[in-house]
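Section 3.1 - Work completed
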Amino acid sequence: MKYYIGIDIGGTSTTIGLVSQEGKISDRSVILIEGFASGPIEPFLDAIVDAIQALAKRKGVTIEGIGIGAPNGNFYNGTMEYAPNMPWKEVHEVAAYIEKRLSVKAVLTNDANAAAIGEKQFGVAKDMNDFILITLGTGLGSGIVAGGKVIYGHDGFAGELGHSIVVPGGRDCTCGRKGCLEAYVSIRGLLETYHAFEVGTVNTPQEIAMKAEAGEQAAIETFMKTGAWLGLKLADAAAYTSPEAIIFFGGIAQASDLFFPSLKETLEANVHNLYQNKIRIMRSGLPLNDAAVLGSAALVM
């Protein structure tokens, strides 16, 4: 049996999975970003290499290829470029570095694109050729599949819905602009929306979800506003690719019952009539943290 490595580089942690050709994650390792944030990127990449070697040794297998999902990942160049939610800015040749250290083919793409590939290969999008996958976590990522292929654009950066403007001149975004969707629909955005009600302090989206489920109006309104902002921008996105479905993945997506109603209402109220009542809103069919790992591995299968 052939084995591959799938790597999901996230804003707070990185997951390295040992994936069989059937799409089963047989073992994994997690690296916290915080321990490497104050220095250059090379020690972090070395930790990934060490984890890959340990996984292969533990299972006694040979690695056939390495796929990497990274924020602002450029599929064409194998680079992570100016990622706003990561401690390392500028352009970093992540795929080439890991490939050189291990003498194994390494391929890199945007983390949300990797999640979309995972959903297409192993999740609810198996039979779909046109869909959008939205990752909701530290930031808002998106992978757009049209005609069965991920859309990369001419420079490798197509599909950044999180950095489309939803409130002109609005909140500061980590990308340096104002009013981006990610500034409103992400962990940071959800917390900022809730704190604006001045009803108390919370530190996680899970706390807001618990308050909403208990009937607190401020928490309920927070999720309604979040869904409305997202629905508005997805109405625009529908006009670009006419997706069969929009699929949600990530920590905030676990609270989908709280924001899906306002998302669907806003989407249908603003989408062109050609697309009304045609787009399914769905949660990922893969376990949390698996979609990007599986999708990354699928890059080199």
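Second construct:
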Amino acid sequence: MKLHPSSRPSLLAFALLLSPAAWAQSDLVALHPCNIVGVKAKQQVEDLQATCATEIARGDVQLVSSDLVRAFLDKEAKSPKEPQGSCARAKKPSECLGKLAAATQASRAVLITVDPGPLTRVSGLVVNAQGEVVDQKSIQLRIRPGQSQGDVTRTAITRLREQLTLVPLKIAPLVEQPAPPPLVATPEPSTGTAQTTPPPPTQAPPEAIAVRQSPLRTGRTWKTPAAYAGAGVGVVGLGLGVVFAITGNNAMVESNKFYTGTNLPTFNQLGEVVSLREKASRDRTIAGVSAGVGAALVGAGVYLWLTDRPASPAPGTAALSAGPGGVSVHVLLP
């Protein structure tokens, strides 16, 4: 989803940024050109790469445009003589794939390695935009009589695609269970004999009416100061979460400016795009942590304040008694 540069975040946008669903990027997958091992013929390499890309794109996998992937790899090329770079030849392939996912605005990047032969081996590496390895699997198939190398390779890649976790798992929303029906009291069966309730006995009027006042001194425990302190720190944490959410959203808006319309970032601008995407991801993570900690502290403060009880009152009460013979006041000093 692209944001217009002139748009301003609203309160709804702040709430979405603080929710876990807003931290995740799109479900697009950046497919690195398949790494073909042990094949020197250029035409055969291109045929195997085309077969690999076709099989990975089947199903519900949405791939990033190959032009964006090639632009990133051209920028990562180690020398001008090399027309295109490759994460497979990098010192840290997972780090290279993480940069590829961030630069192409994808949630994950995938590198498939194919080693054709009588015993065809196919392996897959899935990395998220932070450079963390999400999944890694490898399978091998032997060519049977009457099978071609292309058929075996296609079958192996299809099986590998079914086993790899290419897109983030979807979590089904919780369904609120309906409230149980109210209980209806069952009347007791009648015995056929009417029962009468005797009237309450009359009491003689008291000779004196005693009025006791509330304790002279009351207080609260340590929970009340702790509640105020926790709630204050929690409010500060929520404020920091909103600030980092705004800065992360602004960084993502700035990075999207390079993809307006049909324009693509140049080689010199890809580094800035990657830096803005990393800042947006980092700020959103900090915003989520700050908001979570702040909400927890505010909740703890409210709980302590509600559960606090007055301390035992110190001795010191007063009582007023009135009767036919007069009125008396009794005071108990501490």
